[in-house]
Amino acid sequence: MDAYLIPAVDGVAYGLLLAIAAAGLTVAFGAGGVLNLAHGTLIAAGGYVAAATSSGTWTGLVLAVLAATVAGAAGGGVLAAATAALRGRGHLDQALLTFGLALAGGDLLTTVYGPDTLRPRLPAVLQATVTVGGHRYPVDRLAVLGIAVVVCAAGYVLLHRTRAGRLVRATVDDRAMVAGIGVNPRLVDASVLVTAGALAGLAGALSTPILGVGPGTADTVLLLSLIVVVCGRLGSVPGAVAAALAVGVVQTLGVTTFPTVAPYLLTGAMAAVLLARRTGLPAQARP
Amino acid sequence: MSTAARGSAAPWFGSQAARWRSWAPASLAVAVLCAVAASADPYLHATAARMLPLAVLAASVAVVTGHAGLPTLAQVAPYAAGAYTTARLALAGVDLALLHLLAAAAAGAALAGLLGVVLVRHRGTVVLMLSLAAAELTATTAAQWRSVSGGTDGLAGIPAPRLLPGLPPLLADRAVLLYAAAVAIAATAAAVILLGGNRQMLLAAVRGNEARAAASGHRVYAYLWAVHTGAGALAGTGGALLIHTHRWITPADVGFTTAALALLAVVIGGATSLPGAAAGAVAVLTVRDVAAADLPGHAPLLLGALFVAAVYLLPGGLTALPHRLHRQRILPTRLRRQRHQDLPAGSGAARPAVRSTP
């Protein structure tokens, strides 16, 4: 039983982290048409900042998570400024720009933090294991799972119950109408990119205790986020959350159950989703 | 002056001028190649020869990105298929260069045909995303399939090819350079000729207004699939050249970085110009390798900066630069319209076909 249950819980935790990361990506594309290929780099930046700031104390941990979130938001701000200058030049130019920034940013991160995989120093309590219902489970993963649930719930409330969240969803559906009620859609785009960056930094900070952060992190997470975003339909947050959970479970259960085909499972699943959805993706037709 | 008065002379002049401009980078590249081949430095010969596989790959990316209008990173897949086919043939004792090239082109076309079934049904950034996945899968497969690729250690000591049975193997640096240049130029020229005339018009129609092209009875998916498959053959040829010039291969050679370099070369060279893309690849590699001497280990930083600069400073690429400079002056409308066809699909799709006089 442990052989499946533990990876399944790991998968849900990983899926929730992916959901936090991918929600910003999907909204940025749905609202502003920015396919942010630097998203993985923001997540890696959050992870590096958190790993470097953490000191093994509770204060250090809180500071690390905050610093990672702020670093991610700052990265999002840079992206917002960089892509705003390309308005009207199409999705491809924005994708290429963010791709270039991702390459340069990844290089800078490796230069600053070195080529090794880093892990944060956690308070001793978090490094123990607990026994829940007869199963032993690491405390840090349980904590990450708890925080991820809280962040996802807060995100839902923010997106559905506040004016800002409603404006963001409205911009995904109809930019012109948002402009018509007196809100500048570009302001929404910029704030979405900054928020998405902050979420990416947070996701990076939360995932480092489990996965560590290294030179390969950015590429891996970007690819996973893109699969999540494509499978969950571009621009749709609930779709992204559902897809992220599926990806997380497939990723962890697949690796333990079918180790040989695991690298192909996700891309295969994405191809299957796209082939089944013959009409294409909703957000691609907009100019 | 009215447009009609100039109408009779302008199209001929315009298309001819555009054609010469699109071949200008190619002529420059050939001139540089001749100068390099004439020099006495074998290191220079080897360095130049090793740039040519990427130039062919970039030309194939330009076919898919510029002519079919699908921005792609997935051309490394047929490139890898061609390279590993060639490597395996050479290791099995088949050493005829022409056989390698044909087998690699066939393998590349087959894989691109398979990928094309999915890719040509999507547009814009979705293609970019899907092709990103395809590029990652290529590198994963190359690393996993140990019996073919040798795993992450790669394959080394691949025997050199022979041009004809009985001739000595192609080992001398200058001979390899001349052979690789001949293949690269022939393959690119063949692709340019195949994409000329009516086919160019049809593809421009598909890029410009797909719904209208389909409504006129054109089988849009079939055209795009054929172009994608043909570009796969070109990329496969590039893969064969990779083995012939390097004689070793690792999964990193067909990985994401290679895909990104090829796309960058296309962005710099101008999406619809195959010679421009090939010249762009040589330029990118030159900048990277020359500057890599000063900044060891920082190739991604440099490439990223190049990418950003290319997006901001060169919309439409190098081949569109004369056009953009000319646009400041008063030009006949017909001539302008001709030149708009040189621009990539993304920048020209929504432009009205007819505009008022300046």
From TrEMBL, chain B:
Disordered, as annotated region: 332-358
Any one GO molecular-function label of the UniProt entry: branched-chain amino acid transmembrane transporter activity
Lineage start: Bacteria, Bacillati, Actinomycetota, Actinomycetes, Micromonosporales
Recorded topology in the membrane: Multi-pass membrane protein
Compartment list: Cell membrane
Entry GO CC: plasma membrane
Name of the protein described by the UniProt record: Branched-chain amino acid ABC transporter permease
Keywords: Cell membrane, Membrane, Transmembrane, Transmembrane helix
InterPro entries, per the entry: ABC_transp_permease, LivM-like
Top-rank taxon, per record: Bacteria
Main location: membrane
Membrane-spanning segments: 20-40, 52-77, 97-120, 176-197, 222-242, 254-287, 299-321
Organism: Micromonospora craniellae
